[in-house]
Amino acid sequence: MTVLPTDDAAHNAQQVEDVQALLCFIQDTLRSNRGFDFAQALLQVVLRVHADTIAQHDTLRQVAGELQGDIGSSWGKLEGMLQQVRCMATMFGGWHSG
Questions:
Q1: How far is CA 61 from CA 30, 38, 41, 68, in A?
Q2: Cα–chain center distance at 25
């Protein structure tokens, strides 16, 4: 049995492509307003495992930056909804005690 040498450049290019696909998947999931918890958990794992790869490639840094904006937007929407619920609870609480 002969062991063929691995092509590090091809492996690195495939890794960058795979990480980019994962980041784009997470981004699409967040933009669809579904699976927020899943997307956050997957992002945590991707960053833990591939942070160095992301930091070394401009393309991945750009996608990660866009993803950061999407996450901020998602949290902003959630905060807005929670504020509406708090206002409604205050309003209904006032009606009940009056």
A1: 18, 21, 19, 10
A2: 8
Backbone angles phi, psi at 75, to 5 degrees: -65, -35
Closest CA to 23 of 73, 8, 57, 7: 57
- Average pLDDT score over residue span 66-88: 84
More confident residue, 22 or 96: 22
Give the pLDDT score at 95: 72
Cα–Cα distance between 25 and 33 in angstroms, integer? 13
CA atoms within 13 A on the CB side of 89: 6
> What whole-number distance in Å separates Cα of residue 51 and Cα of residue 66?
16
